[in-house]
Specification:
The complex is a heterodimer of chains A (278) and B (327). Chain A is mainly alpha-helical. Helices cover 75% and strands 0% of the residues of chain A. Chain A is globular and about 75 Å long. The chains are: A mainly alpha (278), B mainly alpha (327).
Chain lengths: 278, 327
């Protein structure tokens, strides 16, 4: 195909690529730039295309005058705890559903798919009332438990696919050596399914980091807000301090951006295997 | 559809492997298999229990609530009596009728735009020889962005006083519309924000599908002298159909439950113009504290999502078999 490609076609291609990059990155640039503007710079007319002067005042006030430090800590606690639980439970269940002689595997796997399709709004009311009964509102477990449940189906599917690719002989050898099934999973199967663990882990972490509806419904007290809730409920109805919000947002984007860029291949394979298998 | 393609393969794999096991350890097979099955349930139990507690139980509870008189008291709540009044109240409310129409329309428009634009971008990126990995990385940024942040960002872009959109319209001689102030422009603004955030997701899926297409089919079309567009319509698109259909399915599910974006960008306004079913359900439950009607809104939304998916899978399944017969 490349032989056919003309010089004009090549130029057109690069123009198209440029337009795509602009379309995707311009709003992101605007967010980061606004975070570095002074209060006067944010309000300046015409808008400053480049922050002038570059200021860190938004960053300091987001963390000193406002509780963004708390929100980020809450998001980290909830996301990391959920990811660990999802990987632990997902590994066991994925291995059992992939490799162990359980009856009724298919109905379970189909039920998992159906559950992952269900809209969160339908779960909110009963969970809210239930959590109110057991005094879980405004606590970490109010988010960790539902997040774990909602992210497990995808993790189980992904991990199961990876486990089924591990040669059966390796497990047999380990078993003949006298290792318990749990030991075999830990020291033989899991190391070979590392890419699957990365994919499942990144998806669980990202989902927790970005989830809003449940976090808003269950944990609206300032001390337990995650980043999305903190940002959505920030400011007053009439004044939105955009500079501070975008400084905090930039900080919130960094961990995910690093994760996603470093594990780019795992993310893409997760998205597409989700599309092919999910 | 896709499961139909993969499951038999798995079935075959597990059959051969159990055959191997039978050959290796004939006498102990039954006892061993039984203990492994028990252990398998033990392995699955933590995951299945958590999932059931957080999904199956609330789903049942939600349906019960939607057919009951629910009173939320100071610290607890009471449920009594079977009633259809939650549903009749909801169905008769013009807010719900509008929210339903809006959610369906919004889903159709955004998903269509995202699929078309996303596929076009994927076709462009597929022609890149170098740099494709970097483009994938760039595309992952909007996908991984917290929706609340992107909604706030677009709110700032549309801001009547500080917003840059206002400036751009002014520079183009289109005056300065109050973008989030009138229903039509607020809906368009919301669609633009959604398209920006989600098109990259479609592109990544379609691009992965494109890269995996068999090269020889293209070469055959080229030998036949088919033009670029003709090749696209007659070769690429039919082969991509399963990939695109899956992307559509995912997007429908997400778009139908749209909540974060209107909650932050428009608060469902102006005058309820961007009130989706999820926004309405949330408002009825948590602002008006009417959990019965709220559960009815939520249950109807869930039923519509499930029905929509089943319908889509049905239509799509027949298409797959058609293309399957052709090849």
């Amino acid at each position: 195909m490349s032989a056919r490609r003309s010089k004009a076609g090549q130029t057109g291609l690069w123009i198209a690529v440029g337009v795509i990059i602009l379309f995707v990155l311009a709003p992101i640039y605007w967010m980061i730039a606004t975070g570095f503007k002074t209060t006067a710079g944010v309000a300046a007319q015409p808008p400053q295309l480049f922050p002038n002067p570059i200021s860190f005042e938004n960053y300091t006030s987001a963390f000193t005058s406002y509780s963004f430090g708390t929100y980020i800590m809450n998001s980290l606690i909830v996301s990391i705890a959920t990811t660990v639980l999802v990987l632990a439970f997902g590994t066991l269940a994925g291995y059992a559903l992939g490799r162990m002689p359980i009856k009724g595997k298919l109905p379970i796997l189909v039920a998992l798919l159906m559950i992952s399709v269900f809209p969160a709004i339908a779960l909110i009311a009963p969970l809210y009332l239930l959590m109110r009964e057991v005094n879980w509102l405004n606590s970490y477990q109010a988010l960790i438990v539902p997040y774990t449940a909602l992210n497990l189906p995808f993790a189980i599917w992904i991990l199961r696919n990876y486990f089924m690719g591990v040669p059966k002989e390796m497990e047999e050898t380990s078993r003949i050596d006298g290792a318990s099934p749990l030991r075999t999973v830990w020291s033989v199967v899991l190391p070979m399914a590392l890419p699957g663990l990365f994919t499942a882990g990144i998806f669980a972490f990202t989902a927790c980091w970005t989830e809003f509806l449940m976090a808003l419904s269950f944990n609206s007290a300032d001390a337990f807000r995650t980043i999305p809730v903190g940002i959505a409920l920030f400011g007053t109805p009439h004044v939105t301090p955009y500079g501070i919000i975008f400084a905090a947002a930039t900080v919130a984007v960094v961990p995910i951006a690093i994760l996603v860029l470093v594990f780019r291949k795992s993310v893409v394979s997760g998205l597409t295997s989700g599309a092919v298998k999910g | 559809m896709v499961t139909a393609g993969t499951v038999p393969r798995r079935g075959r794999a597990s059959r051969t492997s159990s055959h191997d096991a039978r050959g290796a350890l004939p006498p102990r097979r039954n006892a061993y298999q039984q203990s492994m099955a028990r252990l398998g349930w033990g392995f699955s139990a933590p995951a299945l229990v958590v999932i059931a507690a957080v999904t199956i139980f609330p789903i049942v509870f939600s349906v019960v609530m939607s057919f009951s008189n629910v009173n939320v008291l100071g610290s607890g709540f009471s449920i009594d009596g079977f009633t259809l009044s939650n549903y009749t109240t909801v169905f008769q409310a013009s807010v719900w009728q509008y929210a339903l129409a809006f959610t369906v329309g919004y889903t159709v428009v955004t998903v269509t735009l995202e699929i078309v634009i996303g596929t076009l971008i994927a076709l462009v990126l597929e022609r890149l020889e170098a740099f494709r990995g970097w483009m994938m990385a760039i595309l992952l940024i909007p996908w991984s962005l917290i929706t609340v942040i992107s909604a706030t960002l677009w709110g700032y872009i549309y801001d009547p006083t500080y917003g840059i959109a206002d400036r751009i319209f002014g520079a183009l001689g289109m005056g300065s519309p109050v973008i989030l102030g009138t229903p039509t422009s607020a809906i368009i603004a919301m669609i633009v924000a959604d398209v920006w955030k989600t098109t990259p997701f479609v592109t990544i899926i379609v691009l992965a599908g494109l890269v995996m297409l068999p090269r020889d089919v293209y070469e055959a079309a080229e030998v036949d002298g088919a033009s670029g567009w003709k090749t696209f319509w007659t070769v690429t698109l039919p082969l991509l159909r399963p990939t695109i259909a899956l992307a559509v399915l995912f997007r429908i599910l997400q778009a139908f439950g749209v909540f974060d974006l209107p909650f932050v960008l428009t608060q469902g306004g102006p005058r309820n113009a961007t009130t989706s079913l999820a926004i309405l359900g949330y408002r009825v439950m948590f602002t008006d504290l009417k959990f019965g009607p709220g559960a009815a809104v939520a249950t109807t939304t869930a039923v519509l999502v499930v029905l929509g998916c089943l319908l889509f899978l049905r239509v799509f399944k027949s298409q797959v078999t058609e293309t399957g017969d052709e090849s």
